[in-house]
Inverse folding.
């Protein structure tokens, strides 16, 4: 069985939108918890996807990457982004320390969503023969796959990705300052890594390990998860 492009878009739509928008909302919520109300004042501490959607990063780019993946038989990295939540790190009670928790909140939300979608896969597999079983399992697999990609991508130690900010928080002040100066060029570096194939070379082993650990932890056969991911 193989889905066409429109079926694949329908399966990915909810997992992609919520993976990206809840990631940003989590940053805003944790920033508010540690004293920065910038995102809260802007209405960005919200579960409403419309407050976070970026027309290119949330919609156009994932659609283009899905289309390219379908055209060339899969294997590409599917990712995207929402409008960044505004955070004024100077407003945090302990800016350098609290930056770690604000940055880590996004990938942590993706891990939790990956677990949720994995449970949907498990439910779909248990309901074999039911009309909703296959769509549920496929959407669950898409959710697991995409959230793990977003989690792994954002944990790369490259500012302005979350992993870069976590690194800046952990490093001594002098080294932290040097690493933080990479931030204006971070997305350019990321795009170069993506189109050169280096990003996939770095990420695919980490994605595979993450999927395997989650599948084992929640009793979902990895072979079933991979089979479903290949269908979409």
């Amino acid at each position: 069985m193989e889905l066409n492009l429109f079926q694949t878009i329908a399966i990915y739509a909810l997992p992609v939108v919520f993976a990206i928008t809840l990631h940003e909302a989590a940053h805003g919520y944790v920033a508010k918890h540690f004293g920065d109300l910038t995102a809260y004042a802007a209405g960005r501490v919200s579960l409403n996807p419309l407050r976070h959607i970026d027309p290119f990063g949330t919609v156009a780019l994932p659609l283009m990457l899905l289309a390219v993946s379908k055209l060339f038989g899969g294997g590409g990295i599917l990712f995207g982004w929402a409008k960044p939540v505004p955070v004024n790190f100077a407003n945090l009670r302990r800016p350098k320390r609290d930056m770690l928790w604000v940055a880590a909140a996004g990938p942590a939300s993706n891990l939790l969503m990956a677990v949720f979608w994995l449970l949907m896969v498990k439910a779909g597999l248990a309901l074999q023969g039911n009309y909703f079983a296959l769509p549920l399992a496929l959407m669950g697999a898409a959710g697991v796959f995409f959230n793990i990609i977003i989690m792994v991508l954002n944990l790369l130690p490259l500012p302005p990705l979350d992993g870069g900010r976590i690194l800046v928080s952990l490093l001594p002040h002098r080294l932290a300052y040097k690493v933080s100066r990479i931030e204006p060029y971070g997305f350019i570096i990321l795009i170069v890594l993506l189109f050169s194939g280096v990003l996939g070379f770095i990420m695919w082993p980490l994605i595979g390990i993450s999927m395997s650990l989650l599948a084992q932890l929640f009793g979902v056969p990895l072979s079933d998860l991979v089979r479903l991911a290949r269908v979409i």
Q: What stands out?
A: The mean pLDDT is 89. The chain has one domain: 5-231.
